[in-house]
Amino acid sequence: MNASMLESALLKTHFDVIPFGIYVVDVANYELVFVNRHYREQLGAAEGGKCYKVLYDNDGPCLHCRIADLLTPEGMPNGITAVYDHFNERDERWSQLQEKTMGWPDGRVVKYAIAVDISELKETQNRLAEAHAELAIRNRELAAQNRILQENIELREHVERIARHDLKAPLSALIGLPQVLLENYDLPEDAASVVQLIEQAGHSMLDMLNQSLVLFRLETGAYVLSPRPVDLADLAQRTAARLSTLPVARGRTIRATLAGNPLAPGESLDYPGDGLLLGPMLQNLVVNALEASPPGGEVTIDLQPQADQVQFAVSNPGEVPPSIRARMFEKYVTMGKLGGTGLGAYSAALAVRAHGGRIELDAGVPGRTTIMVTLPRPGDVAA
Amino acid sequence: MRPLRMMVVDDSGLTVKKMARLLEELGHEVAGMATTGREAVDAYGAVAPDMVTMDITMPDMDGIEATRRIMAQSPDACIVIVTSHGQEQMVMDAIEAGAKGYILKPVKKEKLAETLETIAAKYLP
């Protein structure tokens, strides 16, 4: 046995007693020069095979191969030790590899790698990395949702801006100028009635606009109630008086009462709420009642003050078809009337709820329909 | 969950086979396979899978770049990274590229099933 063989045998013996896998590769051709006992027990006689095939089941040099990092430009050992973790697809185990180049006793330049199985340790690290990834993915999803939310807010502001400024400003001319025409110009009767139609159309457009604006705020949760005293008795009387003169009444009468008795002039019933919501709400309910009444019928608005709440009942002859009773306060539900938007009862319900109140249909009396609104007095709202 | 059309991308033929077997055991159909990022990008449109499992370290084009390109072509694509790289930067790069899941090797059947199910529930019709 010559000196180099002896040296080589000695090295192999040393490598064999180390309790981790060690392999030695010729850096020139990836040929396995030696594997220690640990690998021999797994792989059998591996020497002579290509490291990438035998150890990693690849058809060419591995992508993670560090040989180039461990050599000088002249192809000699550079003294650097590469340390890295690697997952072996062949046996699905994780190793920490320590690799270095050296001169093998027979004169070849080789890389030796010591592989310590760290699969158990990696298991914990990997679960942590997966949890980290999951968190990052959720963050990204959240950011996307926030973006949509932000766009919705901008859209809402945009719609409000259009409604408030862009549409309302020209509408005020449409509503105001007919009065100027009627008062200052001696219009023939036909022309005057046309001008009045224009004015009425302007008013109903303004009403619709206001209503949709309020609806929009209520639906999107942008509305915050700031209660101020509203005289419900006055509101009921004014609503009754105004609607009686409009075409929608068509000969039907409207009567406002307080606990069943006619309202005396000057009688008041203060309720802390939002007049801008309560006015249209009452108007919507009374218009619905008028439309549902047979000709000559009487619609009543009865206010019923109590200690902790105010109720009012809007009642009319006629019945709500049973098929829509349960859905009466849903959006776009109409009783089939011509030109109905299905928003009146729905927006009334939203306005009532914005006051913490409730709205109910009472169809208990045959031949009559009553909408009962209950508004709690603040302080009872939360109860 | 309903069976998914899957595409498996990994440069190790062994891993592709193992992954395909796992997916089939879970009741899914392996409709396409690729061994490089570029192959995956080229094949994605024709295979039109519900979901892709994508390795990161591959020759020609890595899995993060392939994810980025597939997402650019098909923004609804569902790509799950299946890799041995758990370093924070790698994870962030993959997610920034549009990956919807991230699994570390060795792949456990339960983890794979759970990840596919979560993504399907969130993103697939």
Task: Offer a quick outline of the entry.
In chain A, 44% of the residues lie in helices and 22% in strands.
Folded structure, characterized:
The complex is a heterodimer of chains A (383) and B (125). Chain A is α+β, with helices and mostly antiparallel strands. Helices cover 44% and strands 22% of the residues of chain A. Chain A has helices at residues 3-17, 37-43, 51-54, 119-184, 189-219, 232-244, 275-292, 322-325, 344-354, and strands at 21-26, 32-35, 82-88, 93-103, 109-117, 228-231, 253-258, 261-262, 270-273, 298-305, 309-317, 358-362, 368-376. A six-stranded mixed sheet of chain A has the order 8-7-10-11-13-12. In chain A, strands 2-1-5-4-3 form a five-stranded antiparallel sheet. A two-stranded antiparallel ribbon of chain A has the order 6-9. In chain A, strand 1 and strand 2 form a beta hairpin. In chain A, helix 4 packs antiparallel against helix 5 and helix 7 runs antiparallel to helix 9. The longest helix of chain A is centred in the middle third of the chain and has 66 residues, at 119-184. The N and C termini of chain A lie far apart (101 Å). Chain B is of the alpha/beta class and 125 residues long. Chain B has five helices and five strands. Chain B has helices at residues 13-25, 37-47, 63-73, 88-97, 109-123; strands at 5-9, 29-34, 51-54, 79-83, 101-104. Chain B has a five-stranded parallel sheet, sandwiched between helices. In chain B, strand 3, helix 3 and strand 4 (79-83) form a beta-alpha-beta unit. In chain B, helix 2 (37-47) runs parallel beside helix 3. Chain B is globular, with a radius of gyration of 13 Å. Chain B starts with a strand and ends with a helix. Classes of the chains: A alpha+beta (383), B alpha/beta (125). Chain A binds chain B through residues 57-58, 63-64, 86-87, 89-90, 92-94, 125-126, 128-130, 132-134, 136-137, 140-141, and chain B through 11-12, 14-15, 57-59, 81, 84, 86-88, 91-92, 94-95, 99-106, 111, 122.
